[in-house]
Design brief:
- The chain is an all-alpha fold.
- Helix 3 packs antiparallel against helix 4, helix 7 packs antiparallel against helix 8 and helix 8 runs parallel beside helix 10.
- The N and C termini lie far apart (40 Å).
- The protein has a single domain, classed as Alpha Horseshoe (Serine Threonine Protein Phosphatase 5, Tetratricopeptide repeat).
Length: 291
């Protein structure tokens, strides 16, 4: 699933990427629960809040050296689709300037870069640091909600806490998004699109959390929202929705979801196609059963 996230995320997050805080400077057997495959795939407010910060009234006067300003500008000016280079620059910056006024913005960008690179553990570790500096970074909250829910393992010592965090971050993203102010220079369309991309991540995270808690109706509702509000839905969301629909015996709906997740070339495309046929058989059996 990591490779899937890496390949699809750039298309899904293109607008979000350009409007993120840093860039602006500122989830078979009959009778058994259907389970997703294991994914291959957390101080004080920062001196310089992100462009989507809700309050920057306490920001102190900027203090930095020319070398630090230049290093930050180099990171922000690096090609958007050259993720390895941006990761290199970000890591070098964080090592050299650990107390920088730009650090929260750099960590926010690095969280997204690690997400796009498919480096789940570094993404989570960096997201934790970013939220430690600014707990309301909506981009990081959204990314963390989806990633924590998908990376969850039932035998992990902190399994319950991880689901709790994914839920908390997803809900916080949904709470904060309507309050965000459009950055200067951003069009209404791009700002709305960026908000929808983050909301899709948050609803995806909540959908997987609810699936893992066997709350299938709630899971379907969130996953439906996740795919509805973006132009290029993540096929993982259709896959998870199909599993939730199988578990709640909505077989015809599962046919639709698995069909959609089979339309995109990705790691589980063949699995989606096989599940389409399985869901069709179950739907036919249900229709032919005596009332």
């Amino acid at each position: 699933m990591k490779e899937t996230i890496r390949k699809t995320s750039w298309l899904v997050l293109a607008v979000l990427f350009s409007l993120s805080p840093a860039w602006a400077g500122q989830s078979q057997g009959s009778g058994q629960q259907q389970q997703p495959p294991p994914p291959q795939q957390t101080q004080p407010k920062p001196a310089q809040p992100s462009a989507f910060s809700l309050d920057d009234s306490n920001a102190p006067p900027p203090v930095s050296s020319k070398a630090e300003d230049d290093a930050y500008k180099a990171l922000m000016d690096a090609k958007a689709n050259d993720v390895p280079h941006r990761i290199q620059l970000g890591e070098e910056f964080a090592t050299k300037y650990p107390q920088s006024r730009y650090l929260e913005s750099v960590l926010s960008a690095m969280t997204l870069n690690y997400f796009l690179a498919g480096n789940t553990q570094k993404m989570i570790n960096t997201g934790d640091k970013a939220l430690g500096l600014y707990p309301d970074d909506v981009l990081v909250l959204a990314l963390m909600s989806q990633t924590l829910s998908r990376a969850w393992k039932p035998d992990a010592p902190d399994a319950q806490a991880q689901l709790d965090r994914a839920e908390k971050y997803g809900k916080r993203t949904i709470e904060l998004t309507p309050k965000l102010q459009k950055p200067a220079g951003a069009s209404d369309q791009d700002f709305a699109s960026a908000n929808n991309q983050r909301l899709s991540l948050a609803h995806s995270g909540l959908g997987v959390v609810n699936f893992r808690r066997n709350k299938f109706a709630e899971s379907i509702q969130d996953l439906e929202e996740a795919v509805k509000i973006v132009p290029n839905p993540d096929p993982v969301n259709y896959y998870m929705m199909g599993l939730a629909q199988l578990n709640s015996q909505h077989f015809s709906d599962a046919v639709t979801s698995f069909t959609k997740c089979s339309e995109t070339p990705w790691q589980l495309q063949a699995n989606c196609k096989a599940r389409v046929e399985d869901a069709k058989k179950r739907a036919a059996t249900e229709l032919s059963a005596p009332k």
